[in-house]
Every structure is written in structure tokens, then in C-alpha cells.
Amino acid sequence: MLGVEVSDLRNYDEQLYEKLYVNPLEVLKIMEGAVKSYLKEHKDEFPANKDEEWQVLLRSDDNPLKIRDIKSNMVSRMFVISGIIISCTKPFIKASKLKLECKSCRNSKTIELAPGQYPYVPSFCEGQVGHTQKCPKDSFVALPTSEVIDAQHMKIQEFPEDVPVGEVARTYSLVLDRRNVSKCTPGDRVKITGVMLVNDMKT
Ligand SMILES: [Zn+2]
Predict the structure, then answer these.
(1) 123: CA distance to ligand 1 center in Å?
(2) What is the DSSP letter of 182?
(3) If you average pLDDT over residues 14-35, what whole number do you get?
(4) 176 and 153 in contact (C-beta within 8 Å)?
(5) Cα–Cα distance measured from residue 190 to residue 18, given in angstroms and rounded to the nearest whole number
(6) For residue 16, how far is its CA from the centre of ligand 1 (angstroms)?
(7) Residue 129: its pLDDT value, please?
(8) What pLDDT, on a 0 to 100 scale, did the predictor assign at position 72?
(9) Using 50, 70 and 90 to split pLDDT, how confident is the model at 202?
(10) HSE-up of residue 69 (Cα within 13 Å, Cβ side)
(11) Which residues contact 165 (CB under 8 A, 6 or more apart)?
(12) How far is the CA of 38 from the centre of ligand 1 (A)?
């Protein structure tokens, strides 16, 4: 795990910060790849870490947004919110890279799943190049080489003091993965640096 203070990054390279803010999932992926290749190159200095799957965790000192101020134009951006965790699912295992093979023509396919994205298997196989016969419906099977990660869903509710009189407290769903799993329990007051997903949010 590598913790990154967003303010350090902003002081170091404003442009990189801007990219992270606008497209955090892509920048995080590049950062994790960079950590991995750095450790590979310096494997003599870090022998124990060579096979570890690295996760970059962001921490921002920005003022958290109130849950009711979340807007749809923030989708896919980095943001900071605070609130109370009101429910957590049990941790579960979710595919992150699904490797599929067609039972009929042996055509293989890899599907990379974004955080919070549910695995899906295409119904139809395009077949191999030069393969004239169409493959039957639902011919793909998942291979054991598919990659999986730990994940967990939580619900966060706004602080009672943020709820206007006569209104109901608002909640949001959170998708947590890898090192963020099992980090909090219901009742915890938290500040979260995350990414707004289309249907969900990820820390
Ligand atoms: Zn096929």
C-alpha cells in the first residue's frame, strides 16, 4: 500500500494534480503500475515486495463536501465527503479482470472491470478470425486465471447537523476495495477521499 497526500501531489506538480482530480481512476492505475515497475527494477532493495499487488490510497485535506451537495456533474471525479457509516456488507470477492474462453471455438477474451462494476459475460462470441461457423449463445466460460479483489459495500449518511429541519437524512452507497475493506464499522464518523462512480462511489 502507498498512501499519497493529495496536497503533496498538488505542491509537487499542479498539472498532475489537475489530472488526478478530473480522471482519478486512470491516474491511480498509472500510479499503481509505476510503483510496481519501480519495485521490480529495485527488487534487490525490496525483495519482499516484488509480487505484492500495490494499491495507492489517496488522502486529501480538502474540506469535505456535505452529502446533500453532491452533484451529478462530479461523476468520475475525485471528491471528499464526510458522514456516518450506517451499514456495511460482508467483504466479498469480486472479479477485477475476467478471463473468458469460448467453449466452442476457444476464442479468448479479457474483460477489465472498473471499481464498482459488476462482472458481465457477453452472450455471443465473435469467433476467431476466419472461423465461418457462428458460436452458440452463452458459449463463454470464466477461466480460473481471472483476477479477483476483495470488495465491500457500505452506506454513508449525512451528519444529523447537516440535515435541514423537516428533511430526511440523505445516504449514499460506497464501494470499497482491497485495502479499504473492513476499515470501518457502522457508527463511525468518517472522511472519505473517493471517486464518484455512475451508480456508486468508491473510496
Ligand atoms: Zn466462439
Answers:
(1) 10
(2) T
(3) 90
(4) yes
(5) 25
(6) 42
(7) 60
(8) 84
(9) very low
(10) 11
(11) none
(12) 39
Delimiting residues of CATH 3.30.1640.10 domain(s) in the chain: 1-61
Note whether 124 and 144 are within 8 A (CB). Answer: no
Please say whether the beta carbons of 49 and 42 come within 8 A. no
* Alpha-helix runs per DSSP H in 24-121: 24-41
- Which grid coordinates belong to 69? 451537495
Average pLDDT for the chain: 87
Cell 456488507 found at: 89
| Burial state string for 156-181 with b = 16 or more CB within 10 A and e = fewer than 16 | bbbeeebbeeeeeebebebbbbbbbb
Tell me the CATH number for domain 1-61.
3.30.1640.10
Measured CA to CA, the distance from residue 133 to residue 34 in angstroms comes to 43
pLDDT tens string 54-67:
788 888 888 999 99
How deeply is 195 buried, as exposed, middle or buried, from its count of CB atoms within 10 A (0-12, 13-18, 19+)? buried
- Cα of 114 vs centre of ligand 1, distance in Å, is 25
